[in-house]
Amino acid sequence: MPGKILLSTAYLAPVEFFSAISLADHIFIESKENYLKQTYRNRCYILSAHGPQLLSVPVYLGSIHKTPIRDIRIDYSKRWQQVHLRAMTASYNSSPYFEYYFENIETIISKDHEFLFDLNLELMELILKFLKYKLTVSPTSDFEPVDNHKNDFRYKISPKIK
What's the domain count of the chain? Predict the structure, then answer.
């Protein structure tokens, strides 16, 4: 699958994203689609001592109705940053290299990004750097209709699809 692939934005994307891009040289992140609830766009799962734990970035409710994902604002009235960082620390503190990786993730999550898309993009670029993937990541300039192209993973990777 060398070449270009199309993905949706994701908060701390699951391994399926990185498996899909492992042979790509250019990633396009969909920035013009309407926000979809209950997707990886604002949530991730970590493995805690009690099993999978959902972490969700709160967004303003008024911004989710037919609003492009690029314009979805993060709701900072909730203490989500502290909750996410504590959950990651509790789950992975004894893992090898935790301190090396966590410091960078903590810095990004602790920033007050106005938009979900910007937070997700910065986290994805960091993880790609950790994985030593040398490729270009670009937001889309127009919405591409879904055509089931083999390199279009926007709706193929979802927490609802097992």
Answer: 1
Residue 160 lies in a domain: no
In-domain check, residue 144: no
pLDDT tens digits along 80-110: 999 999 999 999 999 999 999 999 999 999 9
Beta strands 26-29 and 4-7: pairing type?
A: parallel
Q: How far apart are CA 58 and CA 75, in angstroms?
A: 5
Q: What is the pLDDT of residue 1?
A: 43
* pLDDT single digits (tens) 111-158: 999 999 999 999 999 999 999 988 888 898 888 777 766 777 777 777
Q: Tell me the backbone φ, ψ of residue 132, rounded to 5 degrees.
A: 60, 35
Report yes or no on 24 lying in a domain. yes
pLDDT score at 77: 95
150 falls within a domain:
no
Tokens representing 28 are: 């396009």
Q: Which domain holds residue 116?
A: 4-139
Asked if residues 122 and 113 have their Cβ atoms less than 8 Å apart, the reply is: yes
CB-count burial class (<10 Å; 0-12, 13-18, 19+) for 97: exposed
